[in-house]
Amino acid sequence: MSWDIVIGIETHVQLTTQTKIFSGASTAFGMPANENACLVSLAYPGTLPVLNKEAVKKAIKFGLAVNADIAEYSVFARKNYFYPDLPKGYQISQFELPVVNNGFLTIGDNKKIRILRAHLEEDAGKSVHGILNNQTGIDLNRAGTPLLEIVTEPDMSSAQEAIAYAKKLHNLVQWIGVCDGNMQEGSFRCDVNVSVKPSGSEKLGIRREIKNLNSFRNMEQAINYEVNWQIEQLEDGNEIIQSTVLFNPDTGETKAMRSKEEANDYRYFPDPDLLPLKINQEDIDDIKSSLGELPEASIKKLIEDFKLNNADASIITSNKQTYEFFQSLISEGLDPKITANWIVVNLFAKLNDNELSIEESPINKNQFVLLIRRIMDKTISNNAAKKIFDLLWEDSHADVDQSIEALGLKQVSDSSTILPFVQEVIANNQAMVEQFKSGKDKAFNALVGQVMKLSKGKANPGQVSEILKDELNKV
Amino acid sequence: MKNLSLRELNSGLSNKKFSSEELTKFFLNEIKTSNPKINAFITVDEEKSLQQAKDADKRISQNDMNELTGIPIAQKDIFCAKGWKTTCASKMLDNFYAPYDSKVIELFNQHGAINLGKTNMDEFAMGSSNETSYYGEVRNPWNLDYVPGGSSGGSAAAVASGMAPAATATDTGGSIRQPASLCGLTGLKPTYGLVSRFGMIAFASSLDQAGPIAKSAEDCALMLKVMAAHDERDSTSIKHNVPDYLKNLESPINGKTIGLPKEFFNDDLNQDIKVILEQVIDSYQKMGVNFKEISLPNSHLSIPVYYVIAPAEASSNLSRYDGVKFGYRAEEFKDLEEMYLKTREQGFGDEVKRRILVGTYVLSAGYYDAYYLKAQKIRRLIANDFKNAFNECDLILAPSCPSTAFKIGDKTEDPVAMYMQDMYTISTNLAGLPAISSPAGFLNKMPVGFQLIGNYFDEATILNFTHQYQQITDWHQKTPEADV
Fold first, then answer.
1. Containing domain of residue B20, as a range?
2. pLDDT digits (tens, 9 = 90+) for B40-76
3. Interfacial residues of B (vs A; Cβ cutoff 8 Å)
4. CATH code assigned at B438
5. N or C, which end of chain B is more exposed by having fewer CB within 10 Å?
6. Which residues on A lie below 8 Å from B360 (Cβ)?
7. What is the pTM of this model?
8. Structural domains in chain B (count)
């Protein structure tokens, strides 16, 4: 029997505001425990929430970026439950009337993933185990940090699609500056709802929600494990019970939480301490005008205006920093294709090997520009450029032109210098010349290689080809 | 000094007849004498009060003085005051010292008023008799066997007994007006949103409103002038230009119209109280005020609606008292759940638990629509009734309470009978309207009050009418010592 996989994703995106969503406390990460726990964070008697407008602006920004409706009127509600890291005994969230509705993102070959809603809410604190003897500590630094919870329709049908959506979303929220995207610090957290159903069946299966996914790799592993587990259960004649499961990165398995932990009636009701959130068109227009170019438009521009291929364009727009880096290079008059190729192939290889982001790249930008310029004006060959590039990576003070001189990598494009090399190779490789004459094209490349070798790599390969062709015709 | 009005105290201070320190010592002494039998104060801190008095005297000597500078005010123990034990009359907060000032306390401090002490109240303001306090019941100065009303019973008893010139209070369903009525005082519940709730410990957020309990409309006007201020730290605080309530007191009222809701003046109304209210009407008519019958058709639903909405909000507001961060924590428990259970079982009194249970129930899945949502719809109907009524009149006159003060213990076994105490006051909380209770006479030597309800932010008119009534009557000047 074959099965369809149905996946929906809820993502908690921490909004990059200076202060918390309902108080003036700082949202800085990595502070000593409870340093950012103000009286509101601690839910002291008599304290009241005051909405941070920046958080609302960022929610609107996100809504606009996914073509969603921004609600003119939305309502904050209390989600009631007891937990030590939830100081008020309720979380302020949005329930029936969220701020963002009906958007979408496209993945892969133009597949639309519908975004049902995105709502504002406050984050909880953290329980800290293992510091105090037999006791649990509570750190409320994170309590009250603004979150945007983004909920999709169950529109994804494989782990690959789920990852593609999550990566796209991850890129977008950073691109528009609403989230720092740091998954390890919990700034971007995905809960994945997975169910399976017999292929073609209309009726959705029972879903399980996977939590505790702090990397895309974990997400993929967890979904694949969960899908196989569910199929196995169903094929064995068992029923799936709707539940929340935790992914264990050590075992690669998902495991259901105790049902008691989730048997909550949250008793949602509108928060009487906060007025309904009213957003007028003017505010929306303001934010719209500050939104800037979105990744979709940037990809299109790269392909249509700069004639890049799809793969290079996708990689260059995989984050805003890379795209901006690329644009800044192009604005220096560099050739887009050569530049894209150098970023995608050489720069990214180095960055990935060293687990660095583009912002952490040790390459001096001016020298990088110069390097590409020297390729463009044929001063050096691509191979020679790679050597220089390695130097630039190792030594931030390295100078492209001096290095070309020092290493003697200057390309020879003068035919009077190249001709003797060609003649010498023809004279010494009669067998290959014969092969070429009898129609073996490979032999030609081998001859070019010989000439390059003889010139110690300095000859301009294009010119070598031309001269070699002429000379061979004379033979 | 005992029975002077706030204005008289102010001129005594500015004319150097007495200093703030002398005045404060006088009232602290009154508290020493009277509080043991009345129990109106939970916390008195002579040192803190006298320090404030000295600071005030300095201000007065530098002519940096306004209406309340140097005057001691009793503060309901629902307002957080920095460094003061702030309990809300609950065991849950018996060890809680507020690390910050509520907006109301902040305003009194800015004006140089003296915090005379924190007054007793029903636990978390839940009650109509001040019998649910962890610190014991408060006794009515007019007869110590009787309740002072609640929840602001301590504030009312403190003022009525002369232990304080005036007091702050809060009103969620009648908690200012009912005790004012039962203790022969003037108590004003302002429009919802006029006084900041910042730092005022929440009972039911959409209904809670702070206001004064004092000896006259004039004193209430002075107190409200200080308390009414927009506050960005309370999202439900409304930006409103505060008029000069004092100046307005003398405005003419002839030709104006007072509405009499037929639903309040029916056979259910206590006949003796009805007679007193008729005398009030007569007094106003003599001043040229017209009366007109009006209708508040949904007012009979106020109590059931209130006892859905207020407990619902309370059940959530009181979730923070879990033993984790502050306040009471059970001494022995084996795990987190038991810590929660024991802390809340031991830390809350019966009435608070009752309301948390009711509130949790009406918000639960499957009951929300039938109770909470329906109650909200009726709440809107009740507000609309008033809106329509104010098309026909300037103010509405109503009884304050169904009876005079009852004996301590009389209603503690019957919560519903207790809840009926607020039958005439609760609808204005649901509508968010301002209302006052003013003394109007006595029955069996116990005070009776009447209520004037105004349109939104029309406190000036309410105070004006009440003041005018108090100009031609002396019920508000009676004191337990002189008149019982």
1. 1-484
2. 999 999 999 999 999 999 999 999 999 999 999 999 9
3. 79-80, 86, 88, 93, 96, 98-100, 102, 197-202, 204-206, 232-236, 312-313, 315-316, 318-320, 322, 324-327, 336, 340, 360, 363-365, 368, 372
4. 3.90.1300.10
5. C
6. 267
7. 0.91
8. 1
